[in-house]
Structures are given as structure tokens and as C-alpha cells.
Amino acid sequence: MNNAHPNGISPARKKERTLDIVNRGLGKRYRAERRFRCYGLLAIVVSMVFLSLLFISIVGKGYSAFLQTFVKLDVFLDPEILDEQSLATADYQGLVKKSLRGMFPDVAGRRDKRMLYRMVSSGASFQLRDLVLTQPDVIGQTLPVWVPADDDVDMLIKGHFDRNVDEGQRRLKDKQLAWIDQLSSEDRIKKKFNTTFFTAGDSREPELAGIWGAVAGSFFTLVVTLVLSFPIGVAAAVYLEEFAPKNRWTDLIEVNINNLAAVPSIVFGLLGLAVFLNFFGLPRSAPIVGGLVLALMTLPVVIIASRSALKAVPPSIREAALGVGASQMQMVAHHVLPLALPGMLTGAIIGMARALGETAPLLMIGMVAFIVDIPTGFTDPATALPVQIYLWADSPERAFVERTSAAIMVLLVFLITMNAAAVILRKRFEKRW
Amino acid sequence: MIAIREINEVGFVGQMPEQDTQQQVRAATGRVLVNRENRETVGEITVDHPRMTCRDVNVWYGDKHAIKSVSLDVGRNEVIAMIGPSGCGKSTFIRCLNRMNDTIEGCRITGAITLDGIDIYGKNIDVVPLRAQVGMVFQKPNPFPKSIYENIAYGPRIHGMAANKAELDEIVETSLIKAGLWNEVKDWLGQPGTGLSGGQQQRLCIARTIAVNPEVILMDEPCSALDPIATAVIEDLIDELREQYTIVIVTHSMQQASRVSQRTAYFHLGDLIEVGSTPQIFTNPSHQLTEDYITGRFG
Q1: What CATH number is given to the structural domain containing A373?
Q2: Average pLDDT, rounded, for chain A
Q3: Which member of B103, B144, B209 has the closest CB to residue A317?
Q4: pTM (2 decimals)?
């Protein structure tokens, strides 16, 4: 370098090689890049931490709901009570009470007896009835039967119950605790897998409540939503993108569709209430109405996703089809749609996942009702998974806390399955060539 | 008599040749050329028994006047080459010949274009049979993302040209043979067309076009994405196809135009400057702009 120039940085600069200039700035450039990578990593770590906090709290609270405490009773199926003529309406409750009295013969007095009976679930008698109805030949025998314990006993066994609290403020009294300890020592209390939770509908008794009714309701609702929103959404998108003239009217429609996508879901619920229930007189609390409302809500999402999928199809494919003499419709049906389908499916499934988690519009059309029966069709009264979670979260019984978390886990499994299906479908339909 | 260095509105860059006071210029060889400012078409635009005729064709993209009053005939069984610098309107022009410009938003076309005497922009003309008669090969090879067989069979199938599978097989085979691709792909007909090399893909696109048995084939720079060997194969192919089809080819390469075409049209900024037989255009052009372009002074 020429340093002869007295004040001259500039002539020296001029002679500097590009390589030197680049090398000088290189360290700074790499530092900036490293910093940027760190920000990205940090963002991922933060979101993972929050996500795992959510999962840990839900799973930590909810996993115990998959087990249920059972009590072994020696039930004498008394032929005198179990009359051949009225097997279905016989006094099974009495049988349960009798066997409990047999196990604790020294319990006397009405209050103590009531406390004793309250230790097993009211579902025990239904369990006995089912047993007798399916196997009538057990009448006259004494059978050991595992019946579900009451939710308070269940909570005690699972360790969610503090024995040291003053007796007046406990749901289980000292006598009951003594009986439970006695049963435990006799190996008559055991935790088993809670099949009821996955097969039953809702119930006021936590130990008898299950998620299956809500799952079936959600399923029927989503079927209606999918059947309506996917074909209508795709058809609307294809028309707007491929056939409609570009003028003020189509601009207006586009603005309105984008607007609809941002409308709060409760508004769709109000619309469903006013139009489907009050005007058309469709049944209340029915999956078909829920599906209609959610389809309206999902439609803009499907249309927007489908339009962007159509836009992404390269124009060269369109020109190729038109160049061999395909009509506009043939070009769309034979070439554009198959290429756009993966994107459309992804959009539809994301919309469906949103619909699955939607609660507000369902509240407006009565799907928030307490429904015990499992829906078997589109017009049966039903509730949906997120609504069930909301209902259980509102219930005062301690045992519903873990069931709420367990229901959230079921909902998450549903969502993961749907999103995985979206990925798999996209992979399958995507042309890799 | 001054030499000027300038970038003028005709897109001319560099040393302008000497001009005399007449509206004519004397080239190095002593020939007399039409002045640059004159945008009238020079040369014979008509042919005997034309396949397609274009009269006073103007094209606007919005406010942009892309083609200015172009008249040109396309003869039977000839290869006519469109040459000219980028943006001169040659691609726009051939896209008018099968109404591919219809799909472009804001494109307006005036004038008359006829195919075998019928106005293709007439009221009762359906673009589907028109495009079956006037096929097109594009600049970038654009096979469908389907198998080789399906690529060729698509056109005949939608037009109902084959009564059964055997006939369709035959169309596929003859088209691939004509395009010179049969020997390379006959065992791989079920393979994706996009898996072929660039040159093979372009020949596949040509085979796809001739499978519909068109009368005119438009080629929009078919070799611009290909290497010299693939280009040579396609040029030989064009020469063979001339026996059956009329071919309009747009090309950036003057050598290619001189190798494959019988007539050449030179476009400049939307004007058709000169039309003539290919040897005449390349050895003895009549217009100063054509002379400038083919001698490599610009473009």
C-alpha cells in the first residue's frame, strides 16, 4: 500500500484489493449471521418450553383419569329378588347394599348405613343388571364382582385427598376412611384401566362419565362440516380463480370472503340460531346444525387456501393444456386441479381442525346441553369434545378435574391425527416429478 | 456527415454508420438500404396459396402497443422464422396465431388473421378446434407431470381422435417416431415425462403437439433452453416436419433461422421491418435495421 501520501487514506483505499475489503468485513458479517441464528433458536426454545409446560400440566393432571378405583363385592344373586319375569327391573341396588352390609356387619343406624352405601358408585347396580341379563345362569350363586368405587373413594386412593383436614370439611368421614383401610388391607380395592371413560356418555357421577358421547358428536359434526365446506369451497375457489371475469364484483366477493374468515365464531353461532333453528326449524343440539354452522365458519378458510393452491400451479402447465386444444374446463379438471389438490386438502384439514376445537358457535345452537346418550345419527342430541371439556371444567366434583385434562388429551390426539392425515395426504397426492 | 454515439429511441446502441442526405444509406458493400426511420415493411409479405394471412394486426397490452400494424402471410409447408431483438413482439405475434393471447388479462387485438381463409377472430370461432389445428411448442419445455405416454395421448384423447386403446397406442408411437424420441423412450413410456433431459422434454412437447395432427405448428424459441447437440436434433426434426406441417418459429439465434427456415421476418419494437427469403435476408437485406441486426451491431 502506498503510505507516502501525507494525509491520504483515500489514495491508499483506492489501491486496496477487493479481497482485503471483503475479509475485513467478514467477521462482522458472520457475527450478524450467528446472532440471527441464535434468535431463531431462542424463539423455538421458548415456544417448545411453553408447549411442554402445557403438555406436562395437562398430562400430569389427566393421566390418573385413565385408571379407576374398583371395589370387590361378594354379591349373592338372590333368586328371590331376581324374578325371571322382571329381571330388568329387579332391585339390584338392594343386592349391592346387602353385600356391603355383609362385609361390614357391625354398621348400624341409618346414617352410618347411608355412608356405607355411598362408598360404591350408583353404577354398581347397572353393572350387576348387565351381568344377570347376559348370563342368567349365575342367579343363585355368590360371585365376587368388581364394581366402581365412588369418586370420593377414587380420589382418596389416587392421593388427591387430604386426610388431615378437619372431619367436618372432608367429603369422606373418619368411619368411611376406616372402612376403606379395612377393604384395602383385604385386597378388595384395586385400580384398573378406566374403560368407562372411553365408552360412556356424560354423567353427573364422575366415575360413570365418559368421553365417547362427545367424540361421536364431534365426529358427526365434522362429517357434516367436511361434506359441505370442502366441495363448496373448492368449487367457489375454482370459479373465482379460473373462470370469473376480474371486475369490481369479483373484487367485492374476494374482500367479503377475506372478511368472513376474520368474523368471530360466536357470530356464526348466532346466525345458526336465527336461521337454522328458528327459521328452518332444525332440531336443537343436533350435529347437523353444528356441522352447518361450522361449515359456514370453515368455508372462507377453505376458499382462501384453495385459491392460493390454484395460483401456485405454474402457468406453463395451463399453456401446455390450452396449446393442444383443451378447453378451459378440461385444462382445470385434468391438469390444474390435480396439481392444486394437495394444497386444497391441507387447507381443508386445517380448517377442519379449527372447527373441531370451536366451542362458541356450538353454545348458541344448544350443543352445550347435558346429554347422557351417545348420539347415533346427525339429528340426535349431541355435544362436542371442546364443549364437553368446558362442561366438565365447570363441574364442582374433584374427580372431574382429572377428567377435564383427560378429555383435553383426547382432543389433542384427535388434532394430531388430523394434522398427520393432512401431511400424509399431501405427500400422497403431491406429484414429485 | 457526422458520426454520432447515442442510444436512440430505436434501441440502437453504438456507432451509427454514415448517412447521406437522401433517405437512404449506403452499406459497406455499396448496396442501397432503407433508412432506419422508415418503419414500413420491406419485402414481399404475400405468398401464393397462403395457409395463414395476417392483415394490419395490432396488439395492445393495456396501454403498451406491442404489435404495430403487421401484415404477413404464412405459406404452405414452409418454415418461416421470426427474428428480432428481445421485446420486439415476435412472440406476441405468433401467440396471436392460435389465440393464446386470449388468456392474458388486458390484451387487445385488432386486424384480421385468417386460417385457410377463415377469420380466426370471427364471432363464431371456437378456440378449441383452432388450437387443435394450430399447435404450439413453448420456449420452456412444459411436459405435463404425467407419464410419457399420457403426455402424448392427452390431446388425441380429449379430441376423441382414437376409437380404442390400440389406435391411441399407434398415435403415441407415430408421434414419438416423428419427433425422433421413440427409440430413446419406447421402454419407458410409463415413466414421468418430467424425468427426461431438457432436449428430450422439448421433443416430447413437439410429439405432443403433432399427436393432435395440426396444420400449423408455432414454435416459440423452442431451443433457447437447450444445448447445441439437442438444438441440432430439434433443427433436423423441424426440417423433416416441414414436409407435413407449416411451421412458424421464433428464434433468438440467427444461425438457427438461417439453418431451418425458408422465409424470415425481422421484427423491431413491434414493427415488422423486413420479410424475405432466408438467404436474401441474411446475405442481402434491404433495410438498414435488418442489416444492423444480422451483422451483430445490436440485438
Answers
A1: 1.10.3720.10
A2: 89
A3: B144
A4: 0.81
